[in-house]
Design brief:
With 238 residues, the chain is of the alpha/beta class. Helix content is 37%, strand content 25%. It is built from seven helices and eight strands.
């Protein structure tokens, strides 16, 4: 028997709707943690590893809402992400107390940007629910343009010290050189955990290693981290 159920939903976004999928633990009445996930440039919410992460989270007891926004315009992606955030915070059938923003590649940039906006806002729908950020293959630079990290790291550097951040990155990611990321992390105020996938590319693929083995490693780290910080957030609220 599956530990979760999936439901396709439409998230209001201005005069449009965003395609999304809710992955809900079978014991929905016990759910207090939620994770939002979105894809990178050129993908969608059904990107294989994104689906795998969502199902692993739901199997661990967290609600996961993944969504599609194919625009390559970052401000537009952030607005879409905010619409999904507001949609989740208004779902009355769940008692969500802690929400993690996450994404892969460009989607992780949007997650970080929204986390910065929410943390800087004095008020807003569910602003106190934000529990952390999950970045899978954060694209710190453009291909062959290491200097781009100055612009792309601004939101990371602006996150407050009370904001937990998990970064999962491959050691041979050509869009996120290890030395550059380590330099940025050293200068961040936020509490950052970095999980290095040995031999991992930007797609978190490892030559000579089965895909499912890589998924298991990354998923386990994400689940463990969100569970830990969900407990911490609960203690801070009580």
């Amino acid at each position: 028997m599956e530990k979760f159920v999936e439901e396709v939903v439409k998230v209001p976004f201005g005069v449009k709707h965003l395609d999304a999928t809710l992955c809900v633990p079978t014991k929905a009445e016990d759910v207090s943690r939620a994770v939002l996930l979105t894809h990178g440039a050129g993908g969608d919410m059904n990107y294989k590893h994104l689906v795998s992460v969502a199902r692993a989270l739901a199997s661990s007891g967290a609600l996961c809402l993944r969504f599609t926004c194919k625009s390559l315009n970052m401000p537009y992606r952030v607005k879409a992400y905010n619409a999904v955030w507001e949609y989740l915070t208004t779902l009355e059938k769940f008692s969500i107390r802690h929400i993690f923003l996450g994404g892969r590649s460009m989607g992780s940039r949007a997650a970080v940007a929204l986390a910065r906006q929410l943390s800087e806002a004095s008020a807003g729908a569910g602003a106190g629910l934000l529990a952390g950020v999950i970045c899978l293959s954060f694209p710190l630079q453009r291909l062959g343009q290491a200097h781009a990290h100055r612009q792309r790291s601004k939101d990371l550097l602006a996150l407050p010290e009370e904001m937990p951040v998990l970064i999962v990155s491959g050691t041979v990611d050509n869009l996120c050189y290890r030395a550059l990321l380590e330099r940025v992390v050293k200068n961040m105020k936020a509490a950052v955990d970095v999980h290095w996938l040995e031999g991992g590319s930007h797609g978190l693929a490892v030559r000579g290693r089965p895909e499912e083995s890589v998924f298991d490693e990354v998923n386990s780290r994400v689940v463990t981290w969100t569970t830990k910080h969900g407990v911490v957030a609960a203690h801070e609220q009580d």
